[in-house]
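Q: Hi! First time asking for a complex rather than a single chain. Here are the components, and I think there are two in total. Is that enough to go on?
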Amino acid sequence: MKIAHHPDTATLMAYAAGTLDEAFAVAVSCHLEVCDECRNSVRWAAALGGGFLCEETGTTPLSEGAFGRLLERISATSETPHTAPDRVSLAGDGVTRGTPRALSGYLDTDLELIRWKRIGPGVWQKPISLSPGASSSLRLLRIAPGRGVPEHGHGGQEITLILSGAYRDEIGYFGPGDVADLDEHVEHKPQVVSDEDCICLAATEKPTRFKGIAGRLLQPFVGI
Amino acid sequence: MFIPSATIPERGMNANADLAQSHRALIGRIAEHRDKDAFAELFDWYAPRVKAMLVKQCGSSEMAEDIMQDVFLTVWLKAGQFASSKGAVSTWIFTIARNRRIDVFRKQSSWHYVGIGEMEFPDEAPESADVLLSGEQDSLVAQAAATLPEEMREVIHLAFVEEKSQSQIAGELGIPLGTVKSRTRRAFEKIKQQLEGVL
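A: Yes, that's all I need. Here is the structure of the assembled complex.
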């Protein structure tokens, strides 16, 4: 399936610069695994970083004997030079195959074996632990067919990557590989339209404010 | 603080292209012959730049030097791998430094971090990336950046050289976050347009 919804260009630029907070970086990384177009944009942006490194950063004198110490480390390392490229299987067609690489390091199990915690009728979640210093949070959400997530306003940027299933909201149809990259001004009400559960990875910046009575009841359980 | 530098147009495109080509040649010698002279030459050129970038980002000269050392250990170990790709050396080294910095900061917070962004140099680059980044053309990207309107240049300089997040940039410049994002978007589009004309 072709990917229809991508991260904002500004988000991809921040990813390339290395300034996205952890949850967002993981979500964007997972998207890049399946999206040639965005991988390309990130390459462009990284080339910008490379250009700046050469032309604009300036130089800072190294400490005495820096190169000598580097050579010592090289002779001391047990690691042998890599000759063959690290094989990275990149689908590039919007099809997520199993657990995305960028996510797998954060999970102690495969995506299929996750122990979900029910947080409301037809809605489950799995919070994902990040570095203690992270100022964003990451979670997997699983939503049953026909169910929706209560309408909510965003307290900041929110990136949602669809891993399986699909939902539809005011913006459009979101299937596997699609990303909703929303800022605080967007309010949406996704409804799962696939026959299977919709599993998505959601990176958020600040606590999400749920609206309506159901939402207010749900919020303490969701903890988002 | 944003410090305008912009001495870029002084050197012609050919000089930039030659430099990029010579860096690739050095990588080739490291990859094929484990040539330490080539490595020293590459180190002499890039290490003070990588350190300068890292000092801006970490604020500590010692930490910058440590990360710089890690970066060049990786350059040595992965030169063979990189030689078979088509990217530019400067982009590659920028990416290694960026990833290493992120790693170090996450490790400081005692969480074992699994590298993000490793997929950026798959061996089979998409075709359009070949066109842009084969060999010397990355220096054109920096030249294109130098011609951007100051307000756009400023936000991408702060992001890429000083590694400031978009909200930090907004705070520093006293402009809304949305403005930082729209300038970033427009900068990207302008550079892309300009290079599509050249390449």
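A: The helical segments of chain A are 9-17, 22-32, 36-55, 66-76, 101-104, 212-222. Let me know if you'd like any chain examined more closely.
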